[in-house]
Write a structure and sequence with these properties.
mainly alpha, 55% helix, single chain, 0% strand, 185 residues
């Protein structure tokens, strides 16, 4: 005997009441739509966080010692001097730039008590006693400075002392080295 034959067929009448007309859709503002999306995303992220916790609860983990992970910079010493320009004035300027980079920059004196040097102090030490080479290098630096900043700059020391940090003076030494090399100096 089948199950269908035991129960009498029931005819369900269609509803006779009419549903109330739907209210016209309300236009949401951008802020309201963003709030709804934010709420939906927060719910999804919370659900995903719970699922992650459940799925990874059985995995054994060891505590991590932050000292094994977080380490300070390693002191590798001064940066190596790049390959020198083939021309003598350009090579002096490149070495002066490198000296400021590795030995420090100062202002208002040629060399400060910590051994940091100004632009002219770095040029002087890298010219190694050759006053003609020193004068040529300082002249190229002054020319590079005036090309960039105008003719109002009186001297390399006054330009150096007008700055509060080494970025611009070092950049000018580097550009002057390229200029001296281009000129064959």
């Amino acid at each position: 005997m089948s199950h269908a034959s035991l129960s009498p067929a029931v005819d369900h009448p269609a509803p006779t009441t009419q549903a109330a007309p739907a209210a016209p859709p309300v236009e949401l503002t951008l802020e309201e739509r963003l709030a709804l999306v934010n709420a939906a995303m927060t719910a999804r992220l919370d659900e995903a966080a719970v699922a992650y916790e459940v799925n990874t609860a059985h995995i054994p983990t060891k505590p991590v010692d932050l000292a094994d992970i977080i380490v300070g910079p390693i002191d590798t010493g001064p940066a190596p001097l790049p390959e020198l320009y083939p021309t003598p004035v350009a090579a002096v300027l490149q070495r002066a730039h490198h000296r400021l980079l590795t030995g420090g920059w100062c202002k208002d004196v040629l060399v400060d008590e910590d051994g940091a040097r100004c632009m002219l102090g770095a040029i002087r030490i890298e010219a190694r006693g050759d006053s003609g080479l020193e004068a040529s290098a300082a002249s190229v630096v002054l020319d590079a400075i005036r090309r960039k900043f105008g003719d109002d700059v009186d001297s390399v020391p006054s330009f150096n002392d007008a700055h509060g940090n080494p970025r611009v003076p070092m950049r000018m030494l580097d550009q002057a080295a390229g200029l001296a090399d281009a000129r064959g100096l």
